[in-house]
Amino acid sequence: MQVIFIYGPPAAGKLTVAKIVAEATGFALFHNHLIVDAVASIFPFGSENFVRLREKFWIETMEAAASEDRSFIFTYLPENSVRPDFPSRVQDLVEAVGGKITFVHLTLSQDGQLDRIANADRAEFGKLRDIEILRANFDQFESAARDMPPADVVIDTEVTSAKNAAKLITSKLNEIAPG
Fold this sequence. Notes:
The protein has a five-stranded parallel β-sheet. The longest helix is centred in the first third of the chain and has 20 residues, at about 50-65. By secondary structure, the chain is an alpha/beta fold. The protein contains seven helices and five strands. Helix 1 (about 15-25) crosses helix 7 (about 160-175).
């Protein structure tokens, strides 16, 4: 079992890159907003029930995938409504079944985020699209990202296309594939 855990700031291209990697690898794509949007349809973002249910559904889905040896890609925005140990707990549950997790950090400058945040393709899911909310949260996004486990791959999506980013990720997977 392999898990590709793609994380980065808003508008870094996590889902865009993940879709290309999923196509190349055949791994299931379990992107952040599948659960976030479902839970947010009932509970306000950041509320106690939102936070509890989001994490419960993320973890239980990943545990079920691990129990069936199903590889997947997960996209994630480090932010302060998620417990800081969440990524490490995902790593522990994957490694407990003999799986391998690859942490991929997509980076994008604050100016790059501001340029992309209102893009129309971000409306498909309940993604952050408000420039003022983005600006107000730059510091907490960066702080939460510092709590992540060390990245196996770091890609600056300001200068790397989604297609090339996906190639870098799949190349890394080929290097570390379980034998």
